[in-house]
Write a structure and sequence with these properties.
Layout: E1 2-10, H1 15-21, H2 31-34, H3 38-47, E2 51-56, E3 71-74, E4 78-81, E5 94-95, H4 98-110, E6 116-118, E7 122-123, H5 125-134, E8 142-147, H6 157-172, E9 180-187, H7 204-216, H8 226-233, H9 240-248, E10 254-265, E11 268-277
Parallel strand pairs: 1-9, 2-8, 2-9, 3-6, 4-7
Antiparallel strand pairs: 1-11, 3-8, 4-5, 10-11
Helix pairs in contact: 4-6, 6-9
Bound molecules: 3,4-dihydroxybenzoic acid (DHB) and fe (iii) ion (FE).
3,4-dihydroxybenzoic acid binds at residues 12-15, 59, 192, 194, 236, 239, 266-268.
Length: 279
């Protein structure tokens, strides 16, 4: 059988890759951010996941304004890192887990989530940066799930929560030998806006309220529309929908393993959170 060991939520700011390449982890600008990953590494060492389902938003690498699936699932044997133009080093392809991918697609479509199935998928910093942060020495195979937060209309917070719940159900009925330990990753956020008159916008009080809710009141954020979330968190802060979906996969009760928050990393309120299902 398969079991979810927990969910890791992480910011994915492109500049993280530049800092890692330049070994700037101990630099005063970066240290409060990178220090947040020490507890995550200890937890990963403890739970030893076999595969990661990484919920993220594509930033125009696979899907552009001409074709924009609301939800997509990667079913590829490997995922190449496309050149994004941020000047960040391109990494070797990540291994996929096609069997789990197809199981997810069948279960999600059976659950009335009409996902786009991708037998080829490029990945961008929303996958590569969390992977680098979590597994500096090379990671586990991945199943990428994308959620549109690039072009209106976005899926509602309520729908993203339901997607996460459906992923959780799908994993719990994945009949596989030997047992498979799955870690969920929610990649993006927290509040940030990169363009326009509100460029640099950050909303600490909303971020903290949201993160608080993920432990004990996970449906709190489902009251907000896409427009509400842009207003509250900035036009890219909407990426916190990935956190919501990754949380929803865990079921009713969770325990907070670690939490770190630091403003700013580039233009972003950087957050790192690990939740695990309560025993
Ligand atoms: C930044 C943050 C993002 O989430 C992103 O996708 C690109 C840039 C930033 O703060 O620079
Ligand atoms: Fe982003």
């Amino acid at each position: 059988m398969a079991r979810i060991v927990g969910s890791i939520m992480s910011t994915h700011v492109p500049a993280i890759a530049n800092a890692l390449e330049r070994h700037e982890e101990a630099d005063p600008y970066w240290k409060p951010f990178f220090d947040g990953y020490e507890a995550v590494h200890s937890w990963l060492h403890e739970v030893q996941p076999d595969v990661a389902v990484i919920i993220h938003n594509d930033h125009g690498m696979n899907f552009f304004l001409d074709k924009m699936p609301t939800f997509a699932v990667g079913c590829a044997p490997e995922y190449r890192h496309g050149d994004e133009g941020w000047g960040i080093p391109t990494v070797d392809p990540y291994r996929g887990h096609p069997d789990l991918s197809w199981h997810l697609v069948e279960a999600l479509v059976g659950d009335e989530f009409d996902v786009t199935t991708c037998q080829e998928m490029l990945v961008d910093h929303a996958v590569t940066n969390p992977m680098k942060l979590l597994w500096p020495g090379g990671g586990v195979p991945i199943v990428p799930v994308t959620v549109n937060t690039v072009m209106f209309p976005y899926p509602s917070a309520k729908r993203c929560f339901a997607l996460g719940e459906a992923i959780g159900r799908a994993i719990s009925c994945y009949d596989v030998e030997p047992d498979l330990r799955v870690v969920m990753i929610g990649s993006g956020g927290l509040s940030h806006q990169l363009e326009g008159t509100r460029a640099g916008f950050i909303n600490k009080s909303f971020d903290l309220r949201f993160v608080e809710s993920l432990t004990d009141d996970p449906r709190w954020a489902t009251q907000f529309s896409g427009e509400d979330l842009v207003k509250e968190t900035g036009s890219q802060g909407v990426e916190l929908l990935m956190w919501l979906a990754a949380r929803a996969a865990l079921g009713a009760t969770v325990r907070r393993v670690t939490w770190n928050y630091h403003i700013p990393i580039s233009n972003t309120a950087a957050g790192t959170l690990v939740l695990e299902p309560a025993a």
